[in-house]
Amino acid sequence: MKIATSLVIFYKKYISPLLPRSCRYYPSCSEYALWQLSHSGIITSIFAIGFRILRCNQLFRGGIDYPIIRWEFKPSYIFSKPYYVEPKFWLIKYKKDKFYLIKAFDLSKDKKC
């Protein structure tokens, strides 16, 4: 898992800036790959990333395409931390046990009082 994540980070830092911007989706394919690798198994992630890269061409419309991950909610999650923690990602229900993984942005910094 760490090797795959390191490869994506290497691509994002050193190879992607040399190429023209051509990703038709949000989040970009490399960001999608990082999200998928951090929240799914390696085999599932490789297939999802591969299909995403195959769809990233002129034959598809593009648009917003968040990763879909499996997640089981357990009662222990609710009571594991007694304090409030800012979420890094939001889970939006897709099917029975599958969810869209959406990055949470901190908008409080942008507010002008």
TrEMBL record:
The keyword Aminoacyl-tRNA synthetase does not apply. The chain crosses the membrane at residues 34-54. One of its GO terms (cellular component) is plasma membrane. SMART domains: Haemolytic. It is a peripheral membrane protein. InterPro entries: Membr_insert_effic_factor_YidD. Keywords: Cell membrane, Membrane, Transmembrane, Transmembrane helix. Its main location: membrane. The keyword Protein biosynthesis does not apply. It holds the Pfam family YidD. It comes from the Bacteria. It is found in: Cell membrane. Belongs to the UPF0161 family. HAMAP family: UPF0161_YidD. NCBIfam families: membrane protein insertion efficiency factor YidD. Could be involved in insertion of integral membrane proteins into the membrane. This is Putative membrane protein insertion efficiency factor. The gene is yidD.
